[in-house]
Task: structure prediction
Amino acid sequence: MSQFDGRTIVITGGADGISKRTAQLMAERGAAAIVIGDINADLAAQTAAEITAATSCAVTATRVDVSDPESIAALFTTAIERMGRLDVLVNGAGIMRTSTIEQSDAAAWDLTCDINLRGTFLCAREAFTLMKPRGYGRIVNVASVAARIGGIASGVEYAASKGGVVAATKSLAKLGGPFAITVNAVAPSVIRTKMTEGTAYSAAGIPLGRLGEVEDVAYAIAFLASDEAAYITGTTLDVNGGSYMN
Ligand SMILES: NC(=O)c1ccc[n+]([C@@H]2O[C@H](COP(=O)([O-])OP(=O)(O)OC[C@H]3O[C@@H](n4cnc5c(N)ncnc54)[C@H](O)[C@@H]3O)[C@@H](O)[C@H]2O)c1
Result:
């Protein structure tokens, strides 16, 4: 039996980067259906078609803006219409701005926190209502090493939003426990995606001697979303080449 045999999954931000690789991996490992929700509807549709063609998983895409509560509600309505139930949610949508303190103004703070933190919470909230009656669920949030050590080049608001994700993960895990819903997070360091393209990050000081790849994070997310992680909840798994050790 494969890791995600028959599972139904929602992945936000799945058009690209870490979440796209996670969708590919879960599809390759037997998922029955995946709904990719992303603000970039065209790229999400392209990604869904690509994965469907390469696997036996029914991957579809829908546009969602996770900074908008109504859009989030619509994503989960669509997911239930298409898949019938929800086993796994991966909260992968996020933005990171490299900004000075002068650029980190109220608008930048609100946008980053609305997407990275409030969006994560509201998606988990929708997932809870679908998972609780079934007594099963896996939620994996994507935090960041910035939650551990502060932003590297990102603005204050990014580190704060990801610190919030780590704390929210613990609260959600407590609420999900009685319903066998586990809630965990991953905290990647610099991973080579569009988000970090063109930035001056280097492998200096990373014990494993390289920047991270999307696979590195996707494997960790897949583990936490699997049945093998049934007794792990409320944790944040560092995926950082040893650059920060908890
Ligand atoms: N790349 C890194 O170094 C790194 C490190 C730590 C954490 N992360 C986190 O990993 C997650 C994925 O990042 P990535 O590197 O794959 O970036 P990415 O830019 O490649 O992918 C992010 C995806 O999220 C989507 N998205 C952005 N805003 C959205 C919104 N409002 N609603 C819905 N979708 C939206 C984008 O369209 C994109 O497809 C993010 O939460 C990010 O903060 C990334």
